[in-house]
């Protein structure tokens, strides 16, 4: 917290509570602006007012003073720094607009003997009775809101939601949802999805062994796409899929899901064998036709 007049720092908890109640009244009359910065960056926000300045961050009923001084400086910002900051400046009383009043009384310490301690309450009563209204006004500080600033901290994208894989025996669909409010402050450029086989006939000797990830095609999935088809899977095999969003700052949070493809039935196996035989027969017939064509040309 930067140094400033001690009167600014003498706000009581009662005054802070009163401050939170006055914010809604002042929000329609004070200046409003917005700032945005990337996570890890620095930002400086000047207040339009002059004099003794304090910055308060809104936290509902728990608003707190974060800095004093005309310029609010935040370094190496994180998402926790996002929010609304209100600039308050000291104003002379009385005022026709709602203000925050902070009564500041100078702290005095004196050393007294045991005999003089008994006379102290009487002395205080006399001081209170002789204190002039003018002195009382000088000891009171009034603070008025001048500026309300919303700070947005931009980040990499958040996670996709409702990720699941609808599988058959040898193919399936990877399906997901994405909330645009999770874009991180920049437009989502693309999605990236990968999968790998995580089935083992026997546990690997090396516990750190993992199958290689295969990237789904296209590599950069369009930002408006919400499902991808996957081919050439093996029946009755467990696969792990993962996907993440990308924006200007980089790759977002990775989300994974596991799924096991359906086992192949005898009918499907027979059909697969038949299709393979048909394909082989077609290739052989094509070769014979090419050979016959060559012989005719020679003759």
UniProtKB/TrEMBL annotation:
Provide the alphabetized UniProt keywords: Signal
Q: Where is the Ig-like domain?
A: 20-105
Which residues lie in Low complexity bias regions?
104-115
Which Pfam families would you find in this protein's record? ig
Q: Which PROSITE patterns match?
A: FN3 (PS50853), IG_LIKE (PS50835)
Q: Which InterPro entries match?
A: FN3_dom, FN3_sf, Ig-like_dom, Ig-like_dom_sf, Ig-like_fold, Ig_sub, Ig_sub2, Immunoglobulin_dom
Signal sequence coordinates: 1-24
Region of interest: Disordered = 104-141
Record keyword Signal present: yes
Which residue ranges does the record assign to the Fibronectin type-III domain?
156-265
This protein's name: Uncharacterized protein, isoform C
Q: Which organism is it from?
A: Drosophila ananassae
Biological classification of the source? Eukaryota, Metazoa, Ecdysozoa, Arthropoda, Hexapoda
Q: Which gene encodes it?
A: Dana\GF19154
